[in-house]
Design a protein that fits this description.
The protein has 320 residues and is α/β, with parallel strands linked by helices. The protein is built from 10 helices and 14 strands.
């Protein structure tokens, strides 16, 4: 994948591009990264590329023409490219965005603003995507560009030697877009603090449950939904006679609380889809009034039973 970074400070990237993952990806020719100095496209001897904004206001604004020429200088008529601009007023870059950018093998052109920003006309004419890196104002777009570059490159095939490293990490689909669980390494007892016994048990099912139950940034209700999703993902199971149900997988960016099911009829000869997708919004279900089992049944089992009863009820309604 090719990256071009348009900036007033190309030296800013010299050290990061010679370290760690980015360095190895460049050396293995998995990516190419070039930095373009926007000042080189100035039409005056002082290499100025800024001017006062029309209508007044504090600070200076980057002019459209030098930026446009810089963008046009890296375009290749035979390849697709997308221009990405970094500004605090744009939507925040997320892991989902990084996945999408990594999947799309277009030439990425990063535009780094400075001063009070850039002329709006160049944004409207050339920019394809805009991102911020949080609700804060930085000196320029160089730090966001570097952050975006790193977030994309580490997701590219074979860049990280153990690709499973980013399949089960913070904000990944495997962890349902939530934070990671607590992790520990040797020694087992550090300054009187011991590693949870379940992680030393060797019981993979118990370890998996511990990790999911301790995901960061999760409410109790969300953990219950995640446990349910894990138990029934990639499975078809019987709802009632000859009627089977399949829970659809979770994807980054979708609502964790909305469970979607496909309903099938199944016999010895065939499996046939019989309804459109049935959706259940867990947020609007009334569990308190429905729970008649008291303490005789575990919360997880009760949750499952209630969900399946709701699916069966919606299926019967769809059949009428």
């Amino acid at each position: 994948m090719k990256f071009s970074i348009l900036t007033l400070f190309p030296d800013f990237f010299s050290s990061p591009l010679q370290e760690s993952i980015l360095k190895r990806a460049i050396e293995k020719q998995q990516i190419s990264v070039e930095t373009i100095n926007i000042r080189d496209f100035s039409d005056n001897s002082y290499k100025r590329i800024d001017a006062k904004p029309f209508g007044g206001g504090a600070g200076m604004l980057m002019q459209a023409e030098p930026i446009a020429k810089a963008i046009e200088s890296v375009k290749n008529g035979e390849e697709e490219y997308e221009v990405i601009f970094f500004t605090p007023s744009a939507p925040e870059l997320t892991q989902k965005d990084s996945y999408e950018l990594a999947k799309n093998n277009t030439h990425k052109v990063f535009l780094c603003g400075h001063y009070e920003g850039v002329d709006q006309r160049v944004i409207e004419k050339y920019v394809d995507k805009q991102f911020s890196v949080g609700k804060t104002v930085l000196t320029g777009g160089e730090i966001p560009a570097l952050l975006c570059l790193d977030s994309i490159v580490r997701l590219l095939p074979n860049v990280i030697s153990k690709e499973k490293s980013h399949e089960r990490e913070t904000f990944s689909a495997e962890l349902y877009g939530k934070g990671e669980y607590p992790q520990f390494t040797r020694p087992e007892n550090w300054r009187g603090i011991e590693v949870p016994k379940v992680l030393l048990s060797g019981n993979h099912a118990d370890i998996e449950k511990y990790q999911l139950e301790n995901l960061k940034n999760c409410s109790t209700e969300e953990i219950q939904i995640i446990i349910f999703r894990e138990k029934y993902k990639n499975k078809k199971f019987k709802l009632e006679k000859n009627i089977y149900v399949e829970l659809l997988p979770y994807f980054i960016g979708t609502d964790l609380n909305i469970l979607e099911f496909k309903i099938f009829t199944k016999n010895t000869r065939s499996i046939k889809l019989v309804t459109d997708v049935i959706s259940i919004d867990v947020n609007i279900l009334n569990f308190e009034n429905a729970n008649k089992q008291g303490n005789q049944i575990s919360t997880d089992v009760y949750f499952e039973n209630f969900i399946f009863e709701k699916v069966a009820s919606l299926f019967r309604l769809s059949e009428k």
